Recover the amino acids of this structure.
């Protein structure tokens, strides 16, 4: 059963209680509190996670960290292993930062009935590490940006919904695969490259998407919102 369906059934059950002879002010207040908690859980649960990661990206943009956080193949192979993860939180300019921050918020809102705060928090770190390691197998020399992680998050929750029974979400999985295929063979958007003042890292998009799909297929059941 899909999580938003479970949410609907719980709300319907509450409405049934309200229609009984116990229709009194204390009952109404109790139901209102439960409804409020359910709404917070299903709609605002991801807000703190998004805010925290956006703050991390903003801090990573400060000049103090501009030389020690970006993903750099030579530096990583020389022992600066933290760049594997931190490179995903750095950006070329403020446009790049704003674009990825807004995209994270939109994706979190889109999958708010499927994603739990725990899965989102852990998923970002896992994808950051996997993308950072995966890029070492490519010819990429330097990389900054959160877009690879964003592709992974989208693929993860789209496939999760499909596994749960929402077959229409397979269209979302197909859409992200078509996108990375287009970027790989045709090329990424020139407008995006101009906006971020850098080459769009399609390799990170591919790696992020593939790992997002793999993690979705292997995820623990407790990651999924109940």
């Amino acid at each position: 059963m899909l999580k938003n369906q479970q949410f609907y059934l719980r709300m319907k059950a509450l409405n049934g209680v309200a229609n009984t002879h116990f229709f009194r002010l204390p009952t109404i207040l109790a139901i209102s509190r439960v409804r409020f908690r359910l709404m917070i859980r299903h709609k605002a649960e991801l807000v703190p996670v998004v805010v925290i990661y956006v703050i991390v990206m903003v801090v990573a943009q400060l000049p103090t960290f501009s030389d020690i956080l970006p993903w750099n193949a030579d530096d990583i192979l020389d022992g600066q292993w933290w760049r594997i993860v931190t490179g995903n939180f750095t950006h070329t300019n403020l446009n790049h930062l704003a674009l990825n921050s807004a995209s994270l918020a939109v994706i979190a809102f889109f999958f708010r009935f499927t994603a739990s705060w725990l899965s989102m928090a852990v998923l970002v770190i896992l994808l950051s590490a996997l993308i950072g390691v995966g890029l070492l197998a490519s010819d990429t020399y330097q990389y900054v940006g959160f877009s690879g992680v964003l592709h992974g998050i989208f693929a993860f929750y789209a496939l999760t919904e499909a596994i749960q029974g929402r077959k229409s979400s397979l269209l979302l999985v197909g859409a992200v695969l078509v996108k990375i295929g287009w970027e790989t063979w045709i090329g990424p958007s020139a407008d995006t490259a101009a906006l971020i003042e850098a080459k769009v890292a399609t390799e990170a998009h591919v790696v992020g998407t593939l790992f997002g799909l793999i993690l979705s297929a292997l995820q623990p059941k407790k990651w999924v919102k109940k």
Strands lie at 71-72, 142-143. The radius of gyration is 20 Å. The chain has a mean pLDDT of 84. The longest helix spans residues 25-44.
